[in-house]
């Protein structure tokens, strides 16, 4: 008897394959999607204030870290995924139109310059850093020898895959 009750309480889902039932159970409810859209629109003016330039339709998925935002320029339709970090203290960082920075990636143009072209994809867990430690004298600890700045240029339509 309980089997019949369970089947009836499932309604249409009782006839669905198990994978589809699981997918629907894991799919965020529509209210959450609406809230996410509203929050993204509320945050847009904030991002326009912290970046030197911020194109149309910036999409930020989850929290990001920013240092030196007044030296960072973002093109149109740039996507920044959760936990990514953008640094440009004493440097310059430019990200072109329709480019995406993957989850947990670090783009560090501090003391240097990084230019990412249009339509670029930076995979999750990637690191781009435009400076390096100086290690000329073995008698002096590396932490005391300073940094050497440089530049990184990714042309348009590049896919940078992390390991």
Description:
The chain contains three helices and 16 strands. By secondary structure, it is an alpha/beta fold. The protein folds into two domains: 13-46, no CATH class; 51-160, Hexapeptide repeat proteins (UDP N-Acetylglucosamine Acyltransferase, domain 1). The protein has a five-stranded parallel sheet, with no helix packed on it. The longest helix is centred in the first third of the chain and has 21 residues, at 30-50. It is elongated and about 70 Å long.
Short description:
With 163 residues, the protein is of the alpha/beta class.
Summary tags:
163 residues, 5-stranded parallel beta sheet, 16 strands, elongated
Outline the secondary-structure elements.
Layout (H helix, E strand, L loop, with lengths): L1 H9 L7 H9 L3 H21 L2 E2 L4 E3 L3 E3 L4 E3 L4 E3 L3 E3 L4 E4 L4 E2 L4 E3 L4 E4 L4 E2 L4 E3 L1 E3 L13 E3 L1 E4 L4 E2 L3
Parallel strand pairs: 1-4, 2-5, 3-6, 4-7, 5-8, 6-9, 7-10, 8-11, 9-12, 10-15, 11-16
Antiparallel strand pairs: 13-14
């Amino acid at each position: 008897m309980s089997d019949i009750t369970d089947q009836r309480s499932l309604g249409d889902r009782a006839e669905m394959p198990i994978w589809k039932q699981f997918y629907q159970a894991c799919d965020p409810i529509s209210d959450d999607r609406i809230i996410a859209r509203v929050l993204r629109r509320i945050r847009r003016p904030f991002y326009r204030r912290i970046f030197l330039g911020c194109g149309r339709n910036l999409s930020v998925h989850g929290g990001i870290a920013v240092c030196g935002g007044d030296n960072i320029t973002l093109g149109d339709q740039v996507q920044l995924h959760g936990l990514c970090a953008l640094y440009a203290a004493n440097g310059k960082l430019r990200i072109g139109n329709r480019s995406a920075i993957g989850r947990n990636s670090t783009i560090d143009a501090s003391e240097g310059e990084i230019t990412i072209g249009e339509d670029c994809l930076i995979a999750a867990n990637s690191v781009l850093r435009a400076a390096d430690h100086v290690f000329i004298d073995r008698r002096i600890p590396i932490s005391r020898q300073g940094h050497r700045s440089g530049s990184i240029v990714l042309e348009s339509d590049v896919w940078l895959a992390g390991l």
